[in-house]
Amino acid sequence: MHRFTRSSSIKTLLQSLALVCTVGWWMSACTPRDEEITPDASATLRLEADTVLFDTVFTEVGSVTKRLKVYNPNQNAVRISEIKVGGMGASAFQVFVNGAAGPQLQNVELRGKDSLLILVKATINPTAQEQPFLVNDSILFLTNGNQQQVKLVAYGQNATYYRNNYSTAPGEVWTSAKAHVIYDSVTVPAGQTLTIQKGSQIHLHKNAKIKVLGTLNVEGEHEKRVVFQQVRLEEQYRNAPGQWQGLEFLPGSQPSELRYVEIKNAVTGIYLLAQGDQVPRVTVKHAFLKNMLQTGVLSHGGQVDLINSIITNCGQYTFSGQGGTYTIYFSTLANFSPDFIRATPSVSFQEGSTPYQVQIINSIIWSRQEEELDLQPLTANSTIQIRNSFVKTKKFAGQFSEPTLQNQLNVDPLFRDAPKFDFQLIKLSPANAAGTPLSGIAVDYENKPRDAQKPDAGAFEVDY
């Protein structure tokens, strides 16, 4: 039997307190320094950038999400008392930190030498302004009494929006006052005309298209081209193919004309579909088609006149006609395709439900593949004429090498910088003065005068 005296009880208590202190000290000593939060006022954050800049953001559409990294350069952890958007709930900007949405987050801990990823999104409300306008705010960080900030800047753009398979009104005109944003499709009904004026910007969402059963007249000018492209304008989307469907000209549509246009980043830029004697016809002048997931111009039995135009960077063909009637004058079909591993020739004509009639004059069909021309099959009902042109072909070289045709087969036209889509000819280009005058075509793609006696082949006159 043990007896506990007062002195032994005190001794036991002191031993217990000593043990608690020892354990507390040991636990404190074992806390990693990068997890130990410092209250030091000099422990500030290092911000990846002083500004997060958004390219044009359409009202109602919202932006892609931008990323901002925040670094803790200190050995110790810090507690960020507050991360907030200056305008709070009234701001066009929203932040997300560790899955939590702002506009204000509190007591965010960041270990020593670690980083934090902040996601920022812009959604801008419509205004009455027609021109792009500036929207500003900032992200504020409060750490140990220090306030730091990153500016937020976006350019808002009001637009006219087309939803629910919109059909145009009789005589409808689109101006350049606001951008035009198409959500699904716009249809030009039979017997009606949609006119798109110079300088207009047309933006289409994924799978969106313009379907023409009537007439589409695009009235661009050299300095004020009409542009058809995707909705997203941020850098990573700027040249990405396949972001919208394309322009479709369907059976029964009346002759349409596209002048001074840029069509880019679609699945197929221009598509024509004939049915019996209902043959759509499209005249394309001074156009630049690029970055198509499949084909620049695809026609099933239609009629296309391509003049002073350029088509490049298509996953399959720059121009494909399956039956139909085609004239290609003073154009450059140069399918340099940095975005694709292409297995098809650049230009293809085949007999569909009807034969084809093709005339190619003063043009260039060129790229990296050994064979850039495909003609299958060629029966007595189909005809093709190529003259005063540059064509990369071995399979059909004998067919187009007759001296009277004045073609230059498998001869490099010497573009200024084809991989960067600069198809200007250098001064020593063999395409210089290789063309023949054509009635009614007095200027090139850039509106420079064509030589009246010996024009250059391709879309451009040599730039002296």
From TrEMBL:
PROSITE patterns: PROKAR_LIPOPROTEIN. It comes from the Bacteria. This is Lipoprotein.
